[in-house]
Design goal:
Elements lengths: L1 E7 L4 E9 L2 E9 L6 H18 L5 E6 L9 H7 L2 H5 L2 E6 L10 H18 L6 H18 L8 E5 L1 H10 L4 H8 L10 E4 L4 E5 L7 E5 L19 E3 L1
Helix pairs in contact: 1-6
Amino acid sequence: MIRLLWHSQHQVTLFTIRLTIGNEQRNLAIISNYMEHTTAFVHCAQKILAEFIKKNFPLIEKVNYVSDGTSAHFKNNFSIFNLAHHKTDFGLDARWTFTATVHGKSAGDGVDALLKTTARHTTLIKNILMSNSKDFFEFSQKQQLETARRSNKDTPGVHVFYLESDEVEEVKKNYLKSSNEKLRLAGTIQGVRSTRAFKPISRSTVQYNITSRSTQTKTFTFKQTPFIFHLSINVFAISLDLDT
């Protein structure tokens, strides 16, 4: 299970992830100087997440993403379009379950509070200046690693990563720029915002249900064109849930 949450202030975006695999759990935090909450950012965050999973849990073959229904970066046709290509892009099968926007909270909600509170406390006590997102990242990563070493733990409480805004802009420019035209040609799922669960069954077809436990399943096939299905992008993203 992976839970992704989004928090941002004037200088920093903090995207947090709760990952559960069997009885094991990991917390991840992606710190960035990119301030927009977009599918492009989510895309990049998922690349980081997929690489982490494949490195640390190489036997995992499928992920179940769980997020709220925020349409700007999670619950939209473009995200579902990319979900159909998840296996090709990241080497992992995937499905996507949406909770109500005000529900679906978990321990992942505390990751952002932990990092921000620790940073705020340290800056006040030790008079350390953190003026930008990179400072916050370097401090948080170092602090988490040092805390793990002092506790004789193999892994930190929070795995901290940095996502440069230039990387997000590159994805937005080189890939997402033509997304509206691609979706216009491929077709869109009507009522996507009222649907709760999506599962790709091929590179062009997804199954979806009104609820994650619904027995009434529908399918939608994106129309194939000569250029739509060459999707060798760097990233994708959302909140997740992992099945072993």
